[in-house]
Amino acid sequence: MVWDAGMRDEQIPLLDAWWRAANYLSVGQIYLRENPLLRRELVAEDVKPRLLGHFGTVPGLNLIYAHANRLIRERDLSALYIAGPGHGGPGMVANAWLDGTYTERYPSVTRDAAGMTRLFRQFSTPGGIPSHAAPETPGSIHEGGELGYSLSHAYGAAFDNPDLTVFCVVGDGEAETGPLATGWHGNKFLNPATDGAVLPILHLNGWKIANPTVLARIPEAELESLMRGYGHDPILVSFDSTDAAEEVHRRFGAALEMALDRIADIQTAARENGSSERPAWPAIVLRSPKGWTGPVEVDGLPVEGTWRAHQVPLPSARDSDEHLQQLADWLRSYRPDELFDDEGAPLPETVALAPRGDRRMSATPHANGGLLRRDLDLPDFRDFAVDVDAPGSSDAQATAVLGEYLAEVIRRNPRDFRLFGPDETASNRLAPAVYAVTDKQWNAQTIPLDEHLARAGRVMEVLSEHQCQGWLEGYLLTGRHGVFNSYEAFIHIVDSMFNQHAKWLEASSQVPWREPIASLNYLLSSHVWRQDHNGFTHQDPGFLDVVVNKSADIVRVYLPFDANTLLSTYDHCLRSTGYINVVVAGKQDSPQWLSMDDAVRHCTRGLGTLAWAGTETDGERPDVVLAAAGDVPTEEMLAAAAILRERAPDISTRVVNVVDLMRLQSEDAHPHGLSDADFDGLFTADRPIIFAFHGYPWLIHRLTYKRTGHGNLHVRGYKEKGTTTTPFDMVMLNDLDRFQLAIDVLDRVPGAAERHAILRQELHDRRTAARAYTREHGEDEPDIEGWRWHG
Amino acid sequence: MVWDAGMRDEQIPLLDAWWRAANYLSVGQIYLRENPLLRRELVAEDVKPRLLGHFGTVPGLNLIYAHANRLIRERDLSALYIAGPGHGGPGMVANAWLDGTYTERYPSVTRDAAGMTRLFRQFSTPGGIPSHAAPETPGSIHEGGELGYSLSHAYGAAFDNPDLTVFCVVGDGEAETGPLATGWHGNKFLNPATDGAVLPILHLNGWKIANPTVLARIPEAELESLMRGYGHDPILVSFDSTDAAEEVHRRFGAALEMALDRIADIQTAARENGSSERPAWPAIVLRSPKGWTGPVEVDGLPVEGTWRAHQVPLPSARDSDEHLQQLADWLRSYRPDELFDDEGAPLPETVALAPRGDRRMSATPHANGGLLRRDLDLPDFRDFAVDVDAPGSSDAQATAVLGEYLAEVIRRNPRDFRLFGPDETASNRLAPAVYAVTDKQWNAQTIPLDEHLARAGRVMEVLSEHQCQGWLEGYLLTGRHGVFNSYEAFIHIVDSMFNQHAKWLEASSQVPWREPIASLNYLLSSHVWRQDHNGFTHQDPGFLDVVVNKSADIVRVYLPFDANTLLSTYDHCLRSTGYINVVVAGKQDSPQWLSMDDAVRHCTRGLGTLAWAGTETDGERPDVVLAAAGDVPTEEMLAAAAILRERAPDISTRVVNVVDLMRLQSEDAHPHGLSDADFDGLFTADRPIIFAFHGYPWLIHRLTYKRTGHGNLHVRGYKEKGTTTTPFDMVMLNDLDRFQLAIDVLDRVPGAAERHAILRQELHDRRTAARAYTREHGEDEPDIEGWRWHG
């Protein structure tokens, strides 16, 4: 191994200058409110009253950044930097200020002493910037709050970006998380010819908040085996606090160079020589002390190289003379006078190795994906419409119809649209249509039996919802489009990733220079009402409850109730930016209700009366409103409406369907919210409302509690009653079936239960008989079909 | 490698008989409703109308089970079987029926033809049993619905069970999930002397639902590296469909034997020779065809060894003569006449190798942990009380006080209580107390700098919420006790695991032979209101919304508002069984409100008036109810009450605190629910209620929408407004601060805003000034303290 292949001797002081400058600026952010350049003696009042931030991981991040800079320039690379240890926010900010991007984005943070003071003061302070890499940080697509997603984001960014190199720093803390541990396998899905490169840099600084890390405490041979087992060819490089800076730069520079050489070889083999072998991609394992270059000992206890360096190594710098002196010594150890000019601007030598313009990692448009995003070339969704001569007269599988549409979207957008799923794309019926136009991208071994696998393809399938979500986030954040399709129950696996992405979008919308990225679109199928055969574990519609807690500016929830409403909804979602669109739709053969023209009108409003299903007289308020959201609830409600129309024609009904759930909220709570007047006009202010809902019933109450007629609202939904049974038994178990809904109407319309006592008893008996039949025969009673909607 | 060290030739036919019998019974469950023994020709009507279940993984599971049986008997092992590919439910049921446990648990499922018919019919059918391994399955502690947790459950079961061997079958599908991928590192935390053994058996059958699996499609050398990197010494054994049964049994038997020999050696070295080295534990990699022993080809397409064998290999057995004939041939290939007697009972040779009594894996009490659970030896929590002379007169850190109590719990229960956390036990202030009595268990490398690490200890810390949750579940399900402490925001990472455990508990409560296990106790600290410094990503109280969706029989939510109420709450939690207790508590210095006697009284009721804080006159209803749940909201509400008492004494107030959130629900919705009369008595039916809530405000509406006075309820809580700021700015951002709460009262008590216009303006100005001060100085205005509660 030749350790210093390409580095020239004169580059070493330049690398070291950047490293010292970035470290100095990082420490400054954590500690200083005045005296940024240490041009006078440091006094207690120069130190912030509240010391926040994390120093431990920063020097390693800065070292990598400095060396990446050199090689970006020398090789004219387009590169993105992902800081998995996102606590190292001060480092990322420092690098962006050094290369000038920070001042371009935030002109008040000038490249002089005043700007440096502002840079320091704003850090982790009210009205300032977060302590982690965040949407506010130039060059970042990766928030450092919740850990575990750096590799998934890196692969997502690299897909379809053949000219991009992603430096992905993996912290040894986050390396213990599940999502990160499976994230390594992204390399089985990366195509060296058509995708970019990910260079994982496992940064072992040995400690978490208060514990050692697992990967830092296994023998070197075991760690190397692990990296090889992940499919990497590891380059191990270790430093301790006694290594001279020159030695550090020579060895790390050579390691990075070697890694980039190998990537170049791999890409040449794939792109010019047609190799289709999965290569052993390089990965760097960088072992360095936590809190490197910081205080060795504080109050008699070792700090550098220990967990005590995780956050603020000198916690009493403002209150203790000794700590203050140590802080001054520490800051001066970076020799700021050699790094910044009299005005406080970085000296030319300090930034001599930095790339220029968009090649700066903090300025790359890949980290501000909205700049690169182009609108999708979408077909006319009406071309995929299901014919509906009369409501309920034909059956179709909604997701299969959507699959035909998505296939055409894929065909027209071969470079910037992908479909992600945890081995459920076929199960959710998007196949076979999508596999007629593309394949699943798979760069592991193949055998002749395989179907629809290819080295490059638009469908990404891995049995990890975390990977699907993380890849899609990375893909969107770098300016592309996509859909995540999954089983409804198991999307809870990524609740926390959803939360974090929603927070990212919310915070990004306040950052003026961030351009809007494409919405993150979920398609949840195999939903609660049709998981009868898989049983209780597969029955959970509660993701919607998680979603509606996030900012109304970001989240949208749609429950299209047939194929045409699903098509219209998805067309809207794929055109939108800045949102998270959650769409729940069925995959089973189900009645179709609206013609395409009606579907478009209905979806445009987001909710509305199904006039053909109710019996109200023009100009008079109905006796009852029958509302529904979701395909199965709407089918049940329409069947109940038919029963009532025929058997209790004296009851005047209005049938309402809700596709856009956020319409139910008040207009001050959500931009889609109906005005109170419109709400009252549709639902009435004083009539009973029987609402059949796809999810947990109380969600409807939570959305409507401020409405005038809320006291009249009676919601049926999934109340956590489930088991292995039949589809109709599932709705009966939860009192959402047509018979119970009709009973609910009779019970709530004044006088109806008495007038229709016989019907009521008959409905009750039908339920009892249906349940008994199912228990006896293991299937639904055939003549329940006779009680369905008929026009 | 000696491949058949201990197996005797005459054992091979016995192993094969069990394997064939288990496979036969598994296929029977998927297909048959009549003619269970094939004593007459198979006709279409014998086949179920709806074919459900998953055959693909079953033969491998059954092979492992058969061979484990042999070695359990020969070595008198206590063993637990975890079927990671839980879809293989029919296999687990078949094995339990063969060894007699099934009939002992379900006497109607007799060991004869009639019982076999019942066994087949009940499978995956309404009123029957789920298609996955489930609470209903004897011997299972691991649901097969959501994938990824088998290894975590296995390690949880093995901790503190030195005599237990856990055979943990890992499916190659689930191996792609994040939680499973990090689950391998459990071996760094296992002590070979004081814990049991986990034998992972990675079962590579090559396919998921519709895709190959990653680990089946990497070169053998890479896979072996991966296993070594995980710290295992792998034993690879591969079969294809052409291998003769004898060959299969010889080789797999020898592999299992070798693995158990190594485990025995490791345990001897640790237990008798005092070795403290982390050993390379054995792991088996079993490569076998998916749908092994099933139809090779169906309708001209290959099935055995492909993804087509995942579920039902012959989908048209009832409708197609050809499929029916194939099914008959398949079933007869197991030679049922040689396996079962004339009555349908297993022949002695079929079950000759099965262990007896509790040694049967389906009968082990470790899989019915309630049998082994003993009550904890708990100290009197009153001994840890904080002195409270007058409400608000002293400060304490609630979780630090709890830490003192938990330390004593640990001291008294050295073998069956553990504390789990993702590197946050110290940060959440349970340290230093707990480390005075125990250490963190850590079997990876150590260095002299380490503190509180030991080969055995009661605290388990790994930076993976999934591992913490999975380990604790495994520990509880095998009859022990524990607490999971975590940051509030990031507990969302395990939303889906929480859901699945709640479903397991709910389903278990319906299984008569399952004894109750200890509750799963969460301690969520570093909560939303005190994550001001970490910023927006760390602010999320929404786990409570996920929790309350689950069955009211299972979930409990507590928001103790000081140290003494936390102690009283936790004493209750640690005594309970069958629940999931979610406790949110602060770790910062905060005012203490109740003496221990008052705290016990208050917590026993779960909610109640803080009479000392209100100004209502006996016998008259107050003008307004000031309610709060959570420590920060209560502090703010009490400050508001003090302001009003002093400045608007004409307003008669009642202050209510809610510790047990479920008391707010109706009594028909939750067993803790207050009656409407009691609710109205406390909150009034007609007075305004200003409610300061810890979490998202609409959760309170969702819990109370049926209450008479709901229309008068005005809730303040976290409305997703967050950033990097100060604690008081956080409450101001969300309108939960004392000034706004007092304004809310003035605005809602009729006439008060007019009467107290000056006060209202002053409060408004205070808010504006406080926000400005924080922006200016980066800290809270010091004299906000002057507006705190004073008695």
UniProtKB/TrEMBL annotation, chains A, B:
SUPFAM superfamilies: Thiamin diphosphate-binding fold (THDP-binding)
Keyword Amino-acid biosynthesis: no
Domain spans labelled Xylulose 5-phosphate/Fructose 6-phosphate phosphoketolase C-terminal: 587-789
Xylulose 5-phosphate/Fructose 6-phosphate phosphoketolase N-terminal domain span: 8-371
EC number from the UniProt entry: 4.1.2.-
Co-factor requirement: thiamine diphosphate
Family: Belongs to the XFP family.
Stated name of the protein: Probable phosphoketolase
Organism per entry: Microbacterium awajiense
